[in-house]
Amino acid sequence: MFASIRDAAAARAPNLRRDQLERLSATDVEHLFAAVDHVAFGGALNALLRRRRAPLTFRLGKRMTSSGGTTTRFQDARNPDSLRFEIAIAPRLLFTTFQLAPAANVCGCECRSTREALQRVMEHEAVHLLEMLVWTTSSCRRQRFRSITHRCFGHRASTHSLITPTQMAAQYYAIRIGDVVEFEFEGRSLTGVVNRITRRATILVPDRRGQRYSDGARYRKYYVPMEMLTRSTSK
User: Fold this and answer.
1) E strand segments, the chain
2) What angle do CA 10, 15, 20 make, to 5 degrees?
């Protein structure tokens, strides 16, 4: 099954012909979904979408930093005909992981390339879409979901070990949320606390003119690339 889906997707999308992907587009994601639907479900997902007159769109979630993919159901309660779905894939997690590690566990399956990991994520999201089309709601924590993914794709879990920005910051920069760090900004040396880590770190620097936070102090917020930060040595 896995090889058949891989080959069907590669026949449609040149970007999906390498084990380690060099680029990825929303169209590639669409072709991969079509391959999963055709090989695993005999086109049933597309048929259900047509029957419900519900469009399905695809997106690269460039700001997604924890989930490998998401499937979302949209519908205006006042307009039953407004039903639509979206599948988003997180390219940053995929590419970062295999730049830093030789393998990752995705859905309980060992993946040694971005292409393998991407396919496992799409298999997972396709089952979310199936559940939403048939039962309206979907949860990968429930036995029904796990049973479908195991029977159809051999998945043994619903989680992944793709490297998140927070994990990368801790592992490769030794910086964690709550650490005091230093950085240069417009020729000044500033010191602040790491408040959040996504594509960049959110640093809160004490400033009398800044926004007041729950601890009663005022801070100015800065978004700083990880490579520009150093842990503060001052006590």
Assistant:
1) 56-60, 69-74, 84-89, 104-106, 109-111, 180-185, 188-197, 201-212, 218-224, 230-231
2) 95
How is 93-119 classified by DSSP, letter by letter? HHHHHHHH-S-EEETTEEE-SHHHHHH
Last residue of one domain, picked from the residues 163, 181, 207 = 163
Q: Looking at the structure, tell me whether residues 197 and 123 fall in a common domain.
A: no
pLDDT of residue 23: 94
User: Which tokens belong to 121?
Assistant: 């994520």
104 and 139 housed in the same domain: yes
Read off the amino acid at residue 46: N
Would you say residue 209 has pLDDT above 70? yes
Q: Tokens representing 181?
A: 């760090």
DSSP 188: E
**Global confidence as pTM:** 0.82
Q: Which range marks the domain in which residue 78 is found? A: 2-163
